[in-house]
Protein 1
Amino acid sequence: MFPNSTYAESVDFAFWFIVGISFTLLVLITILMIYFVFKYNRKKQVKAENIHGNLTLEIVWTVIPVLLTLGMFYYGWMGYQDLSNPPSDAMVVKSTGQMWKWTYEYNNGLVTDTLFVPVNRAVKIDLVSADVNHSFFIPAFRIKRDVLPNRENFVWFKAENTGSFDIACAEYCGLQHSYMYSKVVVLPENEYDLWFKNASEKKDISSTDSTQTLN
């Protein structure tokens, strides 16, 4: 499966790294547990002996967990650093979360309920909430960021494949939380430019018609 964003590969690697360590420890502990159950079975009348200190064992069971923990921290921290530093030339879109929908506002004032972005271009999403706590989550891109009232937040990504991908709210926000879905549609650069031009022209026509009606 091809990665759909700049984060997918690194997040998947960190995930499987942690799962691999956890699975290895589970198997090792299970094997040792079963071994000692049979070895010191009461029927065999084998008595265990107390160990009054073993420097080698103490070093091993201290150093190995520390190294494994530092490894997990390293991959998590590097991913967090990347996520927290968008490129200076990133395209900016403002996303507002509210009960129960997402809206997206582009730099010319165009507002949509579906996020359209060009492929292979950095996109910074400024996140705001109009009411309660939400969480902006694009599973295929492996990104999630809280959207909180009275607090500005952001997330950025670069989509590497064209297509349509789900956007969900990952924070329980009320009665219709489970229906708070949207889409990010990733288009080739020329198709995105054409969509943006047409959508902006329709917005301008609608604004002109509304102004004339009021007058």
Protein 2
Amino acid sequence: MSRLGDLIKLERTRQGLSYKQVAKKCGVSDKYLMEVETGKRIIADDQARRILKVMGMQQQTEADFTLDDIAATVDLQSAVPQLSRAVEEKKLTKKEKREGDAKDEGVAGSIWLDALAGVLKHVPIVNAAMKEVGHRLLPITDGKIEGANPDKVYYLTAPDNDLRGFRVMKGDLLLVVPASAPVDGAIMVLDTPFGKILRKTVRMAGFQVMLQKFDASCESEIKNMNEIVVVGRCVRLEADL
């Protein structure tokens, strides 16, 4: 099944519409729509947007999740349970329905927001001074990203080539999860008076840790545990080719 086909199916199901009802609104055959939803036919992005717009789905939600973001990032099948719960929780009363279409649009948007908030997260990209310079979208699995609280996860832009020998180049993005102690053999984020730095750490006896960097050659220094401030562990590397 294609992601855009999934998205069309999810919105059609949310509204309780049949293939024929949607096909008639959009000027396509119900067979065509069925083939798109089942992945037997590839649909162009602009055509998918048109169908979703005709069905009343907003092009962008309150959380800045665009249709492209959703289709490219989320396993939409995993969103179905959250969406179903959100629909049940936010059903309009007969009185609210009489208040007009504008009210309905807002609720529809919030339903999508509630459903997607459980499966998609804007993860900030920060520099060594912890200034946000962008974001990436990551899926949430069982309420976590890489086993951590989604609100505590971020991408750190590698500030230099100190770890080039470990295949981390300046400008690469490292996904960071919270940590307060060095992990043996891991790349850790350390806090210093000059900003965040990256070091590979090796645990040693006697509450000591070896900090390694590897640019032109491998350099190491040994520190007592109480001399360093660990703030995170790098669990993923993303680099542009």
Protein 3
Amino acid sequence: MFLKQYEVGPYQNFTYLVAESEGGEGVVIDPSYGIEPVLRGIDESRVKVRLILNTHSHPDHVAGNEAVRAQTGAKVVAHRSAPLGQDRSVADGDAIDAGRLKIEVHHTPGHTPDSVLYVFEGNVATGDTLFVGECGRTDLPGGDPSQMYDSLFERVVRLDDGLVVLPGHNYGSTPTSTIGREKRENYVLKPRTREEFVRFLKE
């Protein structure tokens, strides 16, 4: 598998170029502002980008959609509730592929109603649901701390400990992590009741 992480734009966003192999079929995850390095990377790696995967609809995760689409002809994929011009709508449990690259969709509302994780080849792109050492905000429009509780404690912590966490922003001590490490070290994932968690986020 070919995987490259790019930090782009003014908000420490991570955009990912992923493919079955260098020169093979693949995807771009969360094309942000300042997408030019990713576009050059697509050309240099000769990846045939088939899909643009958006983890959620905030502008800093979709700003590069049209530039990637214009260069590659890729189709935009997002959760069916996302207010985006999407070519393919997905829901929890869906499976998608780009060549030999197989991707599972997990719906994780909380940061936004349309937030999803993409699990593939030992990795999980978490968008703004889970960062290294932190989780996404729930005080923006559409955010819901109770839904975030469900997403983290019913979804994220049940993922395989070995999955490499590919977050949506470079906010942590390292650019990637693992689910196991986050369960051990991320203070957000400390066991709490729903009421305690909601109060914790509001504080």
